[in-house]
């Protein structure tokens, strides 16, 4: 459904009168009051009664003029009813009316809800004359609920407009295209807010099309065979059913009507009226204020004839320049607009157009109608402008145009303008000098199917100042039978392709044309003009000349750079010049640029536990990246315990991690803005410093696939994933530890940049446990000693402990006294995991709350016992419970031992050691075991009371002495 121009719609609403409809129960489309075959064959059509055009408005009583009409030879307009009264539409029924030769318009009829009973037998609207382009128009009917024409089967010329009718239903079930000759050009505007879902569907219709829940839609094929009516066949000249099988029994005639009988052509003694499709006698033709022209009955004499007021016949003017008809526009400053069929009717037979002529046809129009209406034009005083005609293919109807004066000119330069006529392929045949442009030149542009050869031939045949011309210089993708240019495409890199073609096929100018296309998509050999307007701007064009091209002995070359990697392009080359005989054009060739290194995939953590993290890899548009495999590296982020211990978490507790589900609106908005700014920042970094074939210096040269199978890696974990793997779970992690995942994509061109995501595993409720909690109280004072070790399997770093004391009274089954004391991890470790504190009250139970980065865990309550005095809590604390006494004892022992050794050395007690040894059984046994025990003797001689000489006796030196 196409939108209607607002100006035309306002004009339509202001001038048309619309048909009044009456609410009543509907009848079936097949019910025409015929019960069986015998009754049908005895029935005859009512005698014809022709009425002229009718304009029914203001007063309901004006409907009475339609009472006896079987045919309206003209139009029927029903509008603005009632003005100041209430109409009873149930009494206005016109079953005799079967035919309207022009158009039917219904507008602003108050309180009318249905049309079914008003025109039950209206069969055809012929559209001989139209309102704008429409033969049926219904709009501004505020109460109309159903649009019902039980017998309407054909609108032979013109279109349908259904405008603003806020309560009108069933429009989607009405097949308006079957009513009109050319489908798809009707303008139907369904009501936007009305609820039509509750309305039932009719039962028993021959097709899925219906006017309402009670009225089926009839079609032209229903006019011949009517078994349900008891009629096997109607006469072949019938349209819309019949009363019997004869030519007199037709409801409506398919073509000509001769006094109640349907005929294929009028008898020789009758005058056919093309406008009304009637066969009249001479007297009837004149009585209807028509005139006789060459044995036909017409509304006015054609060009070259004048009316003889006596005979009411058209007489020849006797010369070519006689009987000149001049047409004027509605205003001296306005051009003569030709936008609709109605505009063409007004200018029909015109020889001279006193003003400029603007042709802008919005709907398809038969060439014969253009020929009948515009072929008589010989001169245009202003300028001729043919623009934005989507369906116009030829201007041959201007074959008699001889002169365009150009008063005034278009844009002060042009007297003939042909612009943006998408399907225009030919102009009109001209003999040399047959058309003269008195002032101004020719402007021809954006006519996509109009060939250069046609334009040049037409231009050369016109007498005018050709220095003022502005003409399109290329074929706009049109193949106007030029020579076929042999084009070769070579892919040079991920950014460039090269065009190559033979030198001998090249004319004065060359146009290089290319555009990206989707994989598998092709274009017509002629052009892409069959596609939507929005897609046509994607073609890139480079106009160049042979002396600007690269070349060798046989070929020209043109390199296109700055293309997108891994993208398919459609390529075309055209060459042309002033000599249209040397035009050439290639077929469309397709080439795909090489791949760049792939961009890093987007990452998200899809799932995690206390021992694993699942990472999802994805692209927003996967087809843009050609990936062979991914390299995934996992790094463990170690927390610095020294830095963490510098903070006193008892005085400055740790804040919980942010919960985005519970944040307020402002915080959420601020966070989203920060994330958006961060994304822009990272994208810009990637654009300027990212790894690609254009910036190889930013890429790391390595063989990552080999690293995946090697243990020589700096990461905690390395994995290569296939291109189809989009999820990977990393296992074996520590609970509530921080890990960083690096991922990059690789293909045959290399590996791209790295994308990073950081995540922390979940905490474990089974960690942070204290299993050796023990506590005691000194018997003589309120000194409490609590010992427990640091948990070895914690959720991250331990930051503090909270000691909870309470006095539990068994008799009251509840504590009445409690105390809490906080310890940092470092403080507890430095005290050898022993807490000694003096409290003001007495407590009999204690428990510990362990605070880690990831979790908070409580121990069970432990009873506080009485501490022993010597040494205190030794069994509870081990070496840590008497650490001071141990250190003193060690130093005392070392000092005493060293002093004793020094005294022994100075007193020479060591000299007596051999004698002491001789007394030892072990020493005696050892000497006895030696083989030379009888021959050996060790002697020591005291010299001056201080030094000794020890010597050994032997048979050789038995008498030698060594004295000092």
Automatic annotation (TrEMBL):
Transmembrane segments: 885-905
Keywords (A to Z) from UniProt: ATP-binding, Cell wall, Glycoprotein, Kinase, Membrane, Nucleotide-binding, Phosphoprotein, Receptor, Secreted, Signal, Transferase, Transmembrane, Transmembrane helix, Tyrosine-protein kinase
Domain Fibronectin type-III: start-end pairs: 481-582, 598-752
Keyword check for Signal: yes
SMART domains cross-referenced by the UniProt entry: FN3 (SM00060), FU (SM00261)
CDD domains (alphabetical): FN3, FU
Membrane topology reported for the UniProt record: Single-pass type I membrane protein
Signal peptide positions on this chain: 1-29
EC number assigned by the record: 2.7.10.1
GO molecular function, one term: ATP binding
Entry's Gene Ontology cellular component terms: membrane
Catalytic activity reported: L-tyrosyl-[protein] + ATP = O-phospho-L-tyrosyl-[protein] + ADP + H(+)
Entry-linked InterPro entries: CWI-Assembly_Regulator (IPR051648), FN3_dom (IPR003961), FN3_sf (IPR036116), Furin-like_Cys-rich_dom (IPR006211), Furin_repeat (IPR006212), Growth_fac_rcpt_cys_sf (IPR009030), Ig-like_fold (IPR013783), Rcpt_L-dom (IPR000494)
Pfam families reported for this sequence: Furin-like, Recep_L_domain
Primary enzyme class: transferase
UniProt-annotated location(s): Membrane; Secreted, Cell wall
Organism superkingdom: Eukaryota
Protein name stated in the entry: receptor protein-tyrosine kinase
Species of origin: Stomoxys calcitrans
């Amino acid at each position: 459904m196409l939108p209607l121009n607002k100006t035309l719609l306002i004009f339509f609403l202001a001038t048309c009168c619309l048909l009044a409809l009456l609410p009543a129960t509907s009848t079936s489309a097949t019910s025409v009051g015929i019960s069986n075959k015998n009754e049908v064959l005895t029935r005859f059509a009512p005698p014809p009664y022709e009425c002229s055009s009718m304009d029914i408005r203001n007063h309901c009583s004006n409907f009475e003029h339609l009472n006896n009409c079987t045919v309206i030879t003209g139009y029927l307009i029903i509008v603005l009813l009632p003005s100041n009264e209430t109409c009873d539409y149930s009494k206005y029924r016109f079953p005799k009316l079967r035919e309207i030769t022009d158009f039917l318009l219904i507008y602003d009829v108050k309180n009318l809800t249905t049309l079914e009973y008003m025109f039950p037998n209206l069969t055809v609207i012929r559209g001989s004359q139209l309102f704008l382009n429409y033969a049926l128009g219904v709009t501004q009917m505020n109460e109309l609920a159903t649009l019902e024409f039980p017998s309407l089967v054909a609108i032979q010329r013109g279109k349908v407009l259904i405008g603003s009718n806020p309560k009108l239903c069933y429009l989607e079930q009405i097949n308006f295209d079957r009513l009109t000759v050319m489908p798809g050009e009707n303008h139907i505007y369904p009501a936007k807010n009305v609820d039509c879902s509750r309305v039932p569907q009719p039962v028993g219709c021959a097709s899925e099309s219906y006017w309402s829940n009670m009225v089926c839609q009839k079609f032209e094929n229903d006019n011949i065979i009517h078994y349900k009516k008891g009629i096997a066949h109607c006469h072949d000249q019938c349209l819309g059913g019949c009363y019997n099988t004869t030519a007199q029994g037709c409801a409506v005639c398919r073509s000509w009507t001769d006094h109640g009988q349907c005929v294929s052509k009028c008898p020789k003694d009758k005058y056919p009226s093309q406008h009304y499709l009637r066969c009249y006698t001479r007297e009837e033709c004149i009585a209807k204020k028509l005139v006789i022209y060459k044995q036909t009955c017409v509304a006015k004499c054609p060009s070259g004839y004048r009316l003889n007021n006596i005979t009411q016949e058209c007489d020849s003017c006797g010369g070519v320049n006689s009987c000149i008809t001049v047409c004027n526009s509605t205003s001296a400053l306005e051009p003569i607009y030709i936008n609709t069929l109605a505009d063409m009717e007004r200018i029909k037979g015109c020889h001279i157009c006193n003003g400029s002529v603007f042709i802008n046809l919005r709907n398809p129009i038969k060439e014969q109608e253009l020929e009948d209406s515009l072929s008589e034009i010989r001169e245009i005083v202003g300028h001729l402008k043919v623009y934005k005609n989507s369906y116009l293919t030829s201007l041959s109807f201007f074959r008699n145009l001889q002169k365009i004066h150009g008063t005034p000119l278009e844009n002060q330069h042009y007297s003939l303008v042909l612009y943006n006529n998408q399907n225009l392929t030919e102009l009109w045949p001209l003999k040399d000098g047959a058309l003269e442009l008195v002032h101004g030149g020719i402007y021809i542009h954006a006519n996509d199917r109009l060939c250069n050869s046609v334009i040049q031939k037409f231009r050369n045949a016109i007498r005018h100042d050709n220095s003022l011309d502005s003409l399109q210089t290329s074929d706009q993708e049109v193949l106007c039978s030029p020579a076929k240019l042999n084009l070769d495409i070579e892919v040079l890199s991920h950014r460039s392709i090269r065009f190559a073609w033979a030198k001998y096929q090249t004319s004065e100018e060359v146009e290089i044309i290319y555009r990206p296309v989707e994989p598998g998509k092709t274009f017509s050999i002629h052009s892409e003009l069959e596609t939507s307007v929005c897609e046509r701007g994607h073609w890139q064009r480079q106009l160049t000349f042979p002396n600007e091209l690269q070349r060798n002995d046989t070929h020209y070359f043109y390199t296109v750079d700055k293309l997108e990697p891994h993208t398919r392009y459609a390529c075309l080359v055209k060459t042309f010049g002033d000599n249209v005989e040397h035009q050439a054009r290639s077929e469309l060739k397709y080439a795909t640029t090489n791949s760049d290194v792939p961009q890093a995939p987007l990452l998200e953590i899809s799932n995690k536990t206390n021992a694993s993290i699942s990472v999802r890899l994805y692209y927003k548009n996967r087809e843009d990246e050609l990936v062979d495999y991914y390299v995934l590296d996992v790094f463990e982020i170690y927390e610095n315990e020294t830095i963490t211990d510098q903070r006193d978490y008892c005085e400055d507790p740790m804040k919980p991690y942010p919960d985005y589900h519970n944040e307020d609106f402002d915080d959420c908005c601020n966070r989203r803005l920060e994330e958006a700014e961060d994304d822009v920042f990272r994208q810009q970094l990637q654009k300027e410093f990212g790894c690609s074939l254009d910036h190889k210096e930013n890429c790391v040269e390595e063989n990552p696939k080999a690293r995946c199978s090697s243990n020589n890696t700096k990461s905690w974990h390395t994995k290569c994933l296939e291109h189809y793997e989009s999820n990977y779970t990393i296992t074996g992690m520590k609970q509530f530890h921080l890990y960083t995942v690096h991922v990059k994509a690789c293909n045959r061109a290399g590996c791209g940049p790295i994308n990073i995501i950081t995540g922390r595993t979940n905490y474990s409720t089974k960690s942070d446990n204290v299993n050796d909690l023990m506590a005691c109280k000194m018997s003589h004072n309120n000194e409490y000693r609590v010992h427990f070790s640091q948990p070895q399997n914690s959720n991250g770093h331990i930051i503090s402990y909270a000691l909870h004391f309470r006095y539990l009274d068994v008799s009251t089954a509840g504590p009445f006294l409690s105390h809490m004391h906080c310890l940092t991890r470092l403080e507890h470790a430095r005290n050898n995991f022993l807490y000694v504190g003096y409290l003001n009250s007495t407590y009999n139970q204690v428990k510990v709350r362990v605070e880690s980065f990831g979790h908070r865990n409580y121990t069970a309550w432990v009873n506080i016992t009485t501490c022993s005095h010597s040494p205190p809590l030794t069994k509870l604390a081990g070496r840590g419970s008497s650490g001071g006494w141990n250190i003193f004892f060690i130093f005392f022992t070392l000092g005493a031992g060293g002093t004793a050794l020094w005294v022994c050395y100075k007193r020479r007690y060591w000299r007596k050691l051999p004698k002491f040894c001789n007394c030892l059984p072990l020493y005696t046994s050892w000497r006895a075991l030696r083989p030379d025990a009888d021959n050996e003797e060790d002697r020591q001689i005291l010299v001056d009371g201080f030094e000794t000489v020890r010597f050994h006796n032997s048979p050789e030196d038995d008498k030698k002495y060594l004295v000092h």
